[in-house]
Structures are given as structure tokens and as C-alpha cells.
Write a structure and sequence with these properties.
- The chain has one domain: Orthogonal Bundle (MetI-like fold).
- Helix 1 packs parallel to helix 8 (about 175-205) and helix 4 (about 75-100) crosses helix 6.
- The chain has eight helices and no strands.
- It is mostly helical.
């Protein structure tokens, strides 16, 4: 149990950092696509296609083994956070972009007719509705990214999956180790899933949802 507790803390810590950076990357990319910024939108589109169409394991190997070959030092934890951020940024970008584009253009024209500038329109008209619309996809991405931390064991991070495989190799207690793996992932993910459902219901009742 102490080994699983330590592994769970590492999994949560790296997962949270990866998700935070994913959100930042996703916001930047979604605004670039929404406002159709020249050149930048092409770069973002290429990034999204590469990120979404390559496995996280391949991305981790590229960062962990490839970057030092060109003189960029890294370690297992930085590799895990960078890989999760790279993958998650593309998914978050699409979730945020869909929320932004779901806001009716008539509302933007109405805001402009009331004298609002671009910043005020984004803050008071677009974002409240876009955030509400994006919440289901956002929470699904959070759960997805936390589950994807299971591949961190490939770069020797002592996460839950690495600990499970290590204990199976040492003591041959496969059933017990896999059972604890499932239990700890449920402990991490189930509260997030419940919170996401409550949050989605809350913003919908507040008048921003469907």
C-alpha cells in the first residue's frame, strides 16, 4: 500500500501539471483558430493533427530519447509533463474552439451594437456561454489525460502502472496488484467524473447550457 500511495501521488502531480499546461496550450490554440490569425492558425492546425494522430507513447519516446540527441536535456518527469501537455493541448483546443464557435454570431453583432469592444464581447458574451458548452468535452479530456498517465511507466516513472508491473515481477501476485491498480485509479478518477457531472448540471441550470 505505501508503494501504491506514493505512485498515486506522483500520478496525480504529473497529471495535474500536464492538464494545467494543456489548458494553457488549448486556450492559445483555440483563440488562434477562432480569430483566424494568419500563419498561426496553420501552425496550430498542423500541431493538432500531429498531436491527435500519434500515440502518447511515441511522443514520450521522442521527447525522452530524441531531445538529448540534439542537445536538449530532459528527465523522466519533465518528459511525462511535456508529453501529456503536447497531447492534451490539442484535445483542449478542439473542446474550447467548439464552445467558442457554438455562440451565435447574432449575439456578437448585438454586443457590438451596444458599443462593446472585442475584449468586452469576449468576456461578457462569448466566454460565459463557451465555457458552459465546453465543460462536457473538457471534463472528458481531463479524465482521458489522467488515464493516459499509465504510459509513463515506459520512461521509468514510478507511477501506478510501473508500480503494478514491478510488484507483479517481484512477487507474482498479479490479481492483487491489478486489483489495487483499478482501485487507485477509481479513487482518482471517480470524484472527478462526479464533479464534472455536477458542474455541467450547475452551469446548465444557471442558464448557459442547453
Amino acid at each position: 500500500m505505501p508503494l501504491y500511495q506514493k505512485a498515486a501521488i506522483l500520478t496525480i502531480r504529473l497529471g495535474i501539471l500536464g492538464i494545467v499546461f494543456s489548458i494553457l496550450i488549448g486556450l492559445i490554440c483555440s483563440f488562434a483558430l477562432y480569430y483566424q490569425i494568419p500563419i498561426v492558425k496553420r501552425i496550430v492546425a498542423i500541431y493538432i493533427e500531429i498531436s491527435r494522430n500519434t500515440p502518447l507513447l511515441v511522443q514520450l519516446f521522442f521527447i525522452y530519447y530524441g531531445l538529448p540527441k540534439i542537445g536538449i536535456p530532459t528527465n523522466a518527469e519533465i518528459c511525462g509533463i511535456a508529453g501529456l501537455s503536447f497531447l492534451g493541448g490539442s484535445y483542449m483546443s478542439e473542446a474550447f474552439r467548439s464552445g467558442l464557435e457554438a455562440v451565435d454570431k447574432v449575439q456578437l453583432e448585438s454586443a457590438q451594437s451596444l458599443g462593446m469592444n472585442r475584449f468586452q464581447t469576449m468576456r461578457y458574451v462569448i466566454l460565459p456561454q463557451a465555457v458552459s458548452i465546453s465543460i462536457p468535452a473538457f471534463m472528458a479530456n481531463v479524465i482521458f489525460l489522467l488515464k493516459e498517465t499509465s504510459v509513463f511507466s515506459a520512461v521509468s516513472l514510478m507511477d501506478l502502472m510501473f508500480t503494478t508491473k514491478d510488484l507483479i515481477g517481484l512477487y507474482y501476485k498479479t490479481t492483487e496488484s491489478l486489483f489495487l491498480l483499478v482501485v487507485f485509479y477509481l479513487i482518482i478518477l471517480l470524484p472527478i467524473s462526479i464533479f464534472g457531472s455536477l458542474l455541467e448540471r450547475r452551469v446548465r441550470y444557471a442558464g448557459f447550457g442547453d
